[in-house]
Amino acid sequence: MPSKGTYHHGNLRPALVRTAMELLEESGETALSLRAVARRAGVSPAAPYRHYADREALVSAVAAVGYRELAERLASAHPSPSTPQQLASVANAYVQFALQRPALFRIMFGEPCDHDNDERVAATAAVSHYVREIAARTFPKADADALATAIWALVHGLAFLHLDGKLDATTPSVVADRVTAAIHALLTATSADARAGAAR
Amino acid sequence: MPSKGTYHHGNLRPALVRTAMELLEESGETALSLRAVARRAGVSPAAPYRHYADREALVSAVAAVGYRELAERLASAHPSPSTPQQLASVANAYVQFALQRPALFRIMFGEPCDHDNDERVAATAAVSHYVREIAARTFPKADADALATAIWALVHGLAFLHLDGKLDATTPSVVADRVTAAIHALLTATSADARAGAAR
DNA sequence: GGGTAATGTGAGCGCCGTAAACATTCTAGG
DNA sequence: CCTAGAATGTTTACGGCGCTCACATTACCC
Q: Of A69, A82, A193, B30, which residue is least crowded by CB atoms under 10 Å?
């Protein structure tokens, strides 16, 4: 039970990532400086170094919670998709996440990641595994790895192209339609399975 | 015919993008500072501001030549693809470009782009149009726009996932195989056309 | 040739990441 | 309980950055 003299913050480490997250949503990725985070957390510029080796380490921590939130979002779109439509809705959730939280998404994927961050590689591995599960469940006869890769890449690419305005996105619903259409095209690929499960 | 007293560089504007490009290849994107570019170009830190409004403007110029070089690369993979195999080879060129020049690729796609840069939007529009052409030629009966979007997204996503180590890439040839496999899956999608043109 | 626009310089502001030395608080072990 | 050390936070400082402004130099056009 802290909050006495305020010399020691009491719970800085998690507070830093939370603060960084807020700053990210409010002011974009360029504003995410270690000093700004410290300032907003009410602490001196050097304090964060007691908990994170450098700026990159903090950013990685933020990215890690981003991965978790993305995973939750996908799961809530559909807990365990096994039909093409369900797959499409998960794909949509992925792209919507990217569009609603562009700065976070860019931090997660838009810059080189240090491979020795366990928290981060674990989180991304989880997403990867999740996609693979979906692919295997939806198209049991297909090569799960290849299919999962293709699906993830397609969705990921859609997210990034929209994020960069390369696809003249307008409203979210237009984006959604486009995503669904693209997914639908891919689905038809694994013909045998798709014909059994797809609506049309 | 310059090179007298060296007060005036004589041709700074293009020299800046060239220098920036070199710096990018040698030292990565984080090292691409306006000051570093000016230093290497043998000019004072404030000089670039006579030619580019700010750092972002110079980066955009670099990105624009990146788009042109990417377009050349794709064209040289195959001038005007009209079969699935040719399409796959172009896709491979795209991913290889991303892996061989990661810093440039990230500058092109990994950060928000200002929409009022004519040079840049023109260049990206060219790539977009090129992809659409390929799609239309390879699968004349398909919805060219949707298909082009799906193909570009798939390839773009593959590039980025590899770039971020999300797909445990090993050798370039492994990457190539994966790209080809993914493309092949997508190709089968537009069933009617594909069955006429695909090798199997 | 001389005036004006284009181009480059220098000094300086405020921000950043990071390090080192120092201060305060927490926590175990005697 | 009390004290030594480990944690945690502060201060100060350094160099690099983007960017601006006043000024110097050069090029170009009448």
A: B30
